[in-house]
């Protein structure tokens, strides 16, 4: 599963990779990754080309380092930035960052936030490597699949370029005062989402309002930026509706594609936590009924592109 359904409605134009796992996809198989025969891979202009599988797919996870990098080893909990090409055993492509308009994507590895085949197959590999994975259903999307791209009980074949690791927590300094128009949001940096403390009956400001409550010193967000972020959000009615800490970890978001983010995050620096109140009128007409009370976001800006 990617970020929540409501979050995906907010960012309707955002293409989110398939790799984030749903709870139902998790199996109980604890077999170690091992090397073995896998479909052959060639390279065209730096892009991998995977031949379709021959015969029956392997029952175990297969991991093959096609090119070993010289960087540090990936550890559990790292946010990995990677390019990848994924196809079914029969050769049908279901996702690829080499497709036109796509860029490398970031995922938290080794913590159950991506499919099990990635967690087991990539932890311990060196940055700069190109790795091939052949992933049996129980370490991918299992009996439910990921329709329509991935049928049930599918064996998945990936080639993954391990580019770099990204921060998993902000590192800015807490700001002492907070805007009285906005709800109180915890400025402590932990492994969990900060609490958004909305008083019963509180009303959203009529205009978009934002404030930095933890100030970083990294690259500043621009109108055209894509950010790596964790965020949590509540309706002003008090109902929570999104929390990336519980829904796959940090994700990449073009700030133009979530209402209020382009304006609310402009100038914020990587390492910051920003609280943004987005009124109903700033959402597309077809979404306003869902967000009638307005929305409060707490956004941790981990990295800025």
Plain-language structure description:
The chain has 305 residues and is mainly beta. The protein has 2 domains: 5-166, Chitinase A, domain 3 (Roll); 173-304, Chitinase A, domain 3, CATH 3.10.50. It has 3 helices and 17 strands. The protein has helices at 5-10, 116-122, 261-265, and strands spanning 41-44, 47-50, 62-67, 79-88, 93-96, 105-108, 130-135, 156-166, 173-174, 184-185, 196-197, 209-215, 226-235, 240-243, 251-254, 273-278, 295-304. Strands 9, 12, 13, 14, 15, 16 and 17 form a 7-stranded antiparallel β-sheet that branches. A hairpin with a 2-residue loop joins strand 1 (41-44) and strand 2. The longest helix has 7 residues, at 116-122. It is elongated and about 65 Å long. The relative contact order is 0.17.
């Amino acid at each position: 599963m990617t970020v929540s359904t409501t979050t995906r409605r907010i960012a309707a134009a955002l293409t989110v990779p398939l790799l984030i796992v749903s709870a139902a996809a998790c199996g109980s198989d604890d077999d170690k990754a091992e090397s073995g025969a896998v479909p052959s891979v060639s390279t065209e202009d730096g892009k991998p080309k995977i031949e379709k599988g021959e015969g029956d797919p392997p029952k175990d996870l297969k991991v093959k380092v096609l090119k070993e990098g010289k960087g540090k080893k990936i550890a559990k909990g790292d946010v990995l930035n990677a390019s990848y090409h994924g196809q079914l055993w029969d050769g049908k492509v279901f996702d690829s960052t080499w497709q036109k308009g796509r860029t490398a994507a970031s995922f938290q590895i080794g913590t159950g936030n991506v499919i099990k085949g990635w967690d087991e197959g990539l932890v311990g590999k060196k940055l700069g490597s190109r790795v091939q994975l052949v992933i049996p259903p129980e370490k991918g999307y299992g009996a439910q699949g990921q329709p329509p791209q991935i049928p049930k009980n599918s064996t998945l074949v990936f080639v993954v370029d391990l580019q770099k690791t990204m921060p998993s927590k902000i590192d800015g300094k807490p700001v002492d005062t907070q805007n009285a128009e906005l709800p109180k949001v915890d400025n402590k940096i932990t492994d969990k989402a900060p609490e958004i403390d909305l008083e019963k009956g509180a009303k959203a400001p009529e205009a978009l309002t934002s404030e930095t409550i933890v100030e970083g010193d990294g690259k500043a967000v621009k109108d055209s930026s894509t950010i790596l972020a964790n965020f949590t959000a509540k309706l002003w009615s008090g109902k929570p509706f999104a929390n990336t800490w519980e829904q796959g970890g940090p994700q990449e978001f073009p700030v133009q594609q979530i209402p209020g983010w382009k304006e609310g995050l402009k100038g914020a620096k990587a390492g910051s936590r920003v609280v943004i109140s987005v009124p109903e009128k700033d959402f597309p007409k077809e979404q306003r009924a869902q967000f009638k009370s307005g929305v409060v976001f707490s956004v941790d800006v981990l990295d800025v592109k």
